[in-house]
Amino acid sequence: MASSGIDLSAATWRKSSYSNGTGGDCVEVADEVVGLVQVRDSKRPDGSVVVVTAAAWGPFVAALKAS
Length: 67
Known about the structure:
By secondary structure, the chain is an alpha+beta fold. Helices cover 19% and strands 25% of the residues. It has 1 helix and 4 strands; from the N terminus they run ββββα. The chain has one helix spanning 54-66, and strands at 14-15, 27-30, 36-41, 49-53. A 4-stranded antiparallel sheet has the order 1-2-3-4. The protein starts with 13 loop residues before the first strand and ends with a helix. The relative contact order is 0.19. The model has no long low-confidence stretch (mean pLDDT 83).
């Protein structure tokens, strides 16, 4: 896995409000790094993390809510 150079060891992850408690498709986000949003699969907390700019994250979430 390629490293983004961001230390996420102390990140505070929040589970999506659309996630359920039965192990369904769940995402978690952390946003302690100014200007960036980190996204991971809650079922694989030690797996890969996708890092996107906050400027891209806002429109992405808005588009999901609109669909």
